[in-house]
Amino acid sequence: MKATELIVQCLENEGVEYIFGVPGEENMDLLDALLGSSIRFVMTRHEQGAAFMADVYGRLTGKAGVCLATLGPGATNLITGVADANMDRAPVVALTGQADRDRLHKESHQHLDIVTLFRPVTKWNTSLPIPEVIPEAFRKAFKLAQSEKPGATHIEIPEDVARMETGGRPLLVQWLHPGGAAPEQIEKAARIISDAAHPIVLAGNGVIRGRASEALVRFAEKLNIPVTTTFMAKGVIPDTHPLTLGAIGLLTPDYVFREFVAADVVIAVGYDIVEYAPHAWNPGGDKKIVHVDMSFAEVDASYIVDVGVVGDIASSLDALAQRAIPHTKTHRSRFRKMLRDELEQGRHDASFPLKPQRIIADLRTALHDDDIVISDVGAHKVWLARLFPCLQPNTCIISNGFAAMGMAVPGAVAAKLVYPDRRVVAVTGDGGFLMNSQELETAVRMETPFVVLVINDQSYGLIRWKQMLQFGRPAFVDFRNPDLVKYAESFNAKGYTVESADQLVPLLRAALSSNHLSIIDCPVDVSENLLLTKRSGAITVPTGDHP
Ligand SMILES: Cc1ncc(C[n+]2csc(CCOP(=O)(O)OP(=O)(O)O)c2C)c(N)n1
User: Fold this and answer.
1) What pTM did the predictor assign?
2) Weakest-pLDDT range from 29-33, 44-48, 192-196, 254-258
3) Contact 356 CB / ligand 1 (< 6 Å)
4) Is 455 close to ligand 1, i.e. is its CB under 6 Å away?
5) 3-class state of residue 306 by DSSP
6) Which spans in 210-352 are helix H?
7) How much is the average pLDDT of 397-402?
């Protein structure tokens, strides 16, 4: 058989349902081999869109999303989405074409060293030297992408290798399951938790990956310990639960942040420091830290672990809940009440342009508990992350490690492919929307109807917000948008403009219940950004923690 036929067999063997990508001369053999496969090829309009689709597919399923590009420019276009998946711990296998091996040693059309280029954005990455290694290379790419901490891997397929004849067959797929944590670590951690005066849980994205949300709720309820989540962990405990304090990150200090000031023990569960640096919540380095995760803690001067409970998160939490002594203090969080009051006030605010709080409240009103929101990156993400009441894990997807703009629209295509029966809303700024809005065509072609809620401030709003804080004036952040209704219609989608505060809920409901891709243009009152900073203290983003 041809090498590409063996590659397709390996992909099928891994359970791949979709490959997202853009064709090129150097991946034509693989595309041709896919014609006879059960795998659906989702052709996109930009390789970045393909990588973001694979990224969100990986987040939602735990199985590697697969994206494909040609060599050179196709590979460079792919890279932002691959990096996003890698840093946000989403399993992705990226495939790229490459020139024939006999021209790789010299200057040559479209050739660049993709393996070197992809090294910093992948966990592992290789070029196929001969077709006989295909079963091993593909099994390894999937195994590493899907094992803790998940991320991206990459295989480069030189064109001449793709065309060769070969034998061989796919290798057995074996899923890795983390074992239980060591009993002595559980004992030590249980003692620290029992002796704590003000323990608090900081839950991260690992709880979602470890399918440990229910165990987290059991743990919190049994021991009566309040829970904060990072942005990417929204929904691991319902935001309506009496023990939730809200999501923390980026905006420092936000209300929730104050909860950490009094805490003497932080139980970090599936927490990832790339999302929210520990020195933001442990500036004095004086908090005791219990690290509960599937892998060992990263080294960080503000994250010196007192005890590491490394293993399957759900069983660790259940064991800790059994061993530790429950706390009896009743939690009445002033800060959680402030967050809820802010949302409630927003719900009834009739001003126009709409306040961010009103937009978030209305979005929740229009959505079912299991509907999915995919956030882009910007000021709207901060508002969504801190205020949107999230009720189930993996229903509010936020890129908060790499935090790349442009994920929401392609991400919504992937979400709709994974869950055709659930409603999906891409919430995006007008800046991020126009970074990947070409994928609206993909959405229409693939018949994946969703709603795009464009938060329109004619500006790179988050950067404007920070410039105003730091310099007192904006610099090169304002722009004009196309007519978004006409823009939507040109893609054969429906377009709506919000013209008064009371229109958003009915428009969202109409769009969500139609079987059409819809774009809602929603003007936002940006003065709320600075007012929020004033209320909650200055935005000081910790070093290395750029949005
Ligand atoms: C690909 C990429 N480029 C630049 C940035 C830096 N950045 C973060 S937020 C932001 C502005 C986002 O503007 P918009 O999409 O309009 O959303 P808003 O902040 O107005 O809600 C920028 C430029 C980034 N995170 N990702």
Assistant:
1) 0.96
2) 254-258
3) no
4) yes
5) coil
6) 213-223, 258-262, 278-281, 313-323, 334-347
7) 95
CB-hemisphere CA count at 13 Å for 168? 24
326 C-alpha to ligand 1 centroid (Å)? 43
What digits encode the pLDDT tens for the residues 320-373? 999 999 999 887 777 888 889 999 999 999 999 999 999 999 999 999 999 999
Average pLDDT over residues 385-411: 96
Q: Is 178 in the pocket of ligand 1 (CB under 6 A)?
A: no
Calculate how far, in angstroms, residue 460's C-alpha sits from the geometric centre of ligand 1: 6
- In whole angstroms, what is the distance from residue 21 CA to residue 50 CA? 5
- What is the pLDDT at residue 545? 36
Specify the residue with its C-alpha closest to ligand 1, atom 4.
405
**Spatial CB neighbours of 58, under 8 Å, sequence gap ≥ 6:** 64, 65, 85, 90, 91, 92, 145, 150
Q: Is the peptide bond before 326 cis (omega within 30 degrees of 0)?
A: no
Q: Residue of the nearest CA to atom 20 in ligand 1?
A: 461
Neighbours of 382 (CB within 10 A): 24
DSSP state of 329: P
Is the pLDDT at 477 greater than 60? The verdict is: yes
> Is a pLDDT exceeding 50 seen at residue 454?
yes
pLDDT single digits (tens) 132-166: 999 999 999 999 999 999 999 999 999 999 999 99
Buried b vs exposed e over 308-339: b needs ≥16 C-beta within 10 Å?
A: bbbbbbbbbbbbbbebbeebeeeeebebbebb
For the record, the structure tokens of 278 come out as: 């520990």
- Tokens 């979400």 found at: 415
**Residue 339: what pLDDT?**
87
Q: Is the CB of 545 under 6 A from ligand 1?
A: no
User: What was the pLDDT predicted at 541?
Assistant: 40
CB-neighbour burial class of residue 485 (10 A; exposed 0-12, middle 13-18, buried 19+): middle
Binding site membership of 429 for ligand 1 (Cβ less than 6 Å): yes
In short, whether 74's Cβ falls inside 6 Å of ligand 1 is no
On average, the pLDDT of the chain sits at: 94
C-alpha to C-alpha distance for 364 and 288, rounded to whole angstroms: 36
Q: What is the identity of the amino acid at 432?
A: G
- 301 is written with which tokens? 């001067």
- Mutate-to-test residue for ligand 1 from 382, 405, 533, highest number of ligand atoms within 8 A of CB: 405
Q: Is the CB of 460 under 6 A from ligand 1?
A: yes
Ligand 1 centroid to Cα of residue 13, in Å, is 39
E strands, 70-159, are 92-98, 124-127, 152-158
Judge if the beta carbon of residue 430 lies within 6 A of ligand 1.
yes
Give the pair of three-digit tokens for residue 396: 């509010």
Tabulate helix, strand, coil % of the chain (nearest 5). Answer: 45, 15, 40
Q: Measure the CA–CA gap between 309 and 183, rounded to whole angstroms.
A: 9
Q: How many other CB atoms are there within 10 angstroms of residue 247's CB atom? A: 29
Instruction: Look at residue 535 in the predicted model and tell me its pLDDT.
Output: 81
